[in-house]
Amino acid sequence: MTEQTSRMSSTARNQSAPEDSFRATFLHAPVGIAHVGPDGQWLDVNPRLCAILGYTREELFSRTFQQITHPDDLDEDTQYVSELLAGHGDSYAMEKRYLRKDGSLIWARLTVSLLRHPDGSPHHFISVVEDIDAQKRTEEDNARLYQQAQEAIREREALLSVASHELKNPLTVLLGYAHMLVLHHTSGRATPERTERGLQQILEQGERLNQLLDTLLDVARLDSGRLLIERVPVEVTALLQRIIEGLQPTLERHAIVLDTPDEPSIVLGDATRLEQVFRNLLSNAVTYSPAGGTVAVVVEPRGGDLCVAVRDQGIGIAESDLPALFGRFYRTENARRANARGLGIGLHVVREIVVLHGGTVSVNSRLGHGSEFTVCLPLA
User: Fold this and answer.
1) pLDDT at 248
2) Distance CA 236, CA 243 (A)
3) Is 2 exposed, middle or buried (0-12, 13-18, 19+ CB in 10 A)?
């Protein structure tokens, strides 16, 4: 071999060494690397990028980056590309979602540089793709947990505000009548009529306090999964008749009409909890019908279910309130304007009890045109 030939071989080896080194780096890089044409066509991809996206090299070569970019991220990505092709800068970076071959989404951090021809015209893009899916999922989980914590704080504050108001009223009445009875008893001015009226108020307000506390305890039991249902045969018509008879003496401007089928209406459930459900719905029907009127209770079988509809002629519910009606501590705007009592958890407890029985509860209402709540339970 001549000296000149030897020098040429050495020069060729020196020139190929950087290319071999670059190729090795490309193939074994811990991040995805791709060469992409100005039209978005994949020109070359390394194994790591194939692993990230779930495609083979050949499958990627038959696609463009636009085809596997999440639609919500595509506009931003193509805008950056257009700006580079127009000569505004040489690189950009963004976080985006790719559509993997199996249909799943994966978050990636994308860094793109544009290589140009000597005359300045675009040649191709070099894209570095880093898998940040686990990091983004953690961020999303943390954001969701933070949002839930904030909602819990708002619910707690709403509960404390409403509960303190609702508990304060009966306590004020209780203390007022108790002080009156003590005063008149010690002064010798007590009369049987005044004593009876005071004792009746103490009894009624005490019962109201007891119901409020029971409702709060039920919410706590539901949250901890300790609200248990004892399933026994329950004759729903008889149960409703007993509830209505108990309510009749307290009604002045309302009438409750019960419409039942001829055949027995038996479900497997907890009689005490079902009484709580129907008593709540009937009390609401009376409370939100300040002008009085008829409250209709219709019992009828529907397929394999027994359905009980409670219809009133009251103030109704706005359509915007319906989706959140059974949420905890939710009170409708018209209920607040009407100064109706309640913590906003009665319907939430109703729904949870019905669900524990394997049933459903729904509402149909229009503002100013009354409401209809329907509870459907599996027939025994």
Assistant:
1) 87
2) 11
3) exposed
